[in-house]
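re: the backbone from monday

yeah here it is again, tokenized this time
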């Protein structure tokens, strides 16, 4: 029996929002220097991420009363105080920039009358900071990230490939 071996510099396991965003970042930072394999057990646009409807939270308008501290508090409280607070703080600080990056990459955010990005209330948040795209936020974020990825070379999709195991030898990931 012949066993085919496929090699990449980096494997991204999962092609939802987390996986696609990671793949885009690798390509932005390293371009053609690293080639990437993206594995998903489902077709690209069938990851759960496409289902998100409500919105993506970020502090966009601190001058109107929102704050990073309030966003962090809502998130930690929403986790029953089980969340890693350093990780929460890192995400909360990153999110305003992420929303604007997605905007620059073509994300069709819903808008206020004056053209600025709109936000609305969402479960667990004490301030209306859910940045939405009507009721298709996850679907449109996935499309935006995938369109961004298409600008780069040297990456490959493995749709409907099911990962069953990792091979680790002496603490080193082998495949
Ligand atoms: C109906 C619904 C509505 C939601 N609404 C919101 C909302 O409004 N706002 C919000 O912030 N969040 C919302 N969420 C939650 C949010 O969508 C998820 O937390 C987020 O999308 C998770 O992204 P992810 O990339 O980590 O995971 P996923 O999108 O689930 O991606 C996981 C990836 O891993 C792959 N994978 C897993 N196991 C294997 C394996 N063994 N082999 C190969 N591939 C594998 C899958 O194929 C997939 O590509 C909602 C979730 C749902 C289901």
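seq for it, each position gets an aa:
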């Amino acid at each position: 029996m012949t066993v085919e071996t496929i090699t990449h510099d980096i494997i991204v396991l999962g092609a939802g929002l987390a996986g696609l965003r990671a793949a885009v970042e690798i390509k932005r930072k390293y371009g053609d220097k690293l080639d990437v394999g993206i594995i998903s057990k489902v077709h690209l646009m069938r990851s759960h991420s496409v289902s998100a409807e409500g919105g993506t939270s970020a502090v966009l308008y601190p001058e109107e009363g929102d704050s990073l501290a309030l966003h962090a508090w809502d998130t930690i409280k929403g986790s029953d105080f089980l969340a890693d607070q350093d990780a929460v703080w890192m995400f909360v600080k990153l999110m305003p920039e992420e929303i604007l990056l997605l905007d620059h990459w073509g994300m069709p955010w819903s808008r206020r009358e004056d053209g600025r990005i709109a936000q609305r209330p969402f479960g667990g948040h004490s301030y209306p900071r859910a940045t939405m795209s009507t009721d298709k936020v996850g679907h449109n974020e996935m499309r935006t990230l995938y369109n961004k990825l298409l600008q780069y070379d040297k990456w490959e999709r493995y749709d409907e490939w099911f990962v069953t195991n990792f091979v680790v030898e002496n603490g080193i990931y082998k495949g």
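The pocket of flavin-adenine dinucleotide is lined by residues 13-19, 39-42, 47-49, 51-56, 137-138, 162-163 (CB under 6 Å). The CA atoms of residues 71 and 127 lie 8 Å apart.
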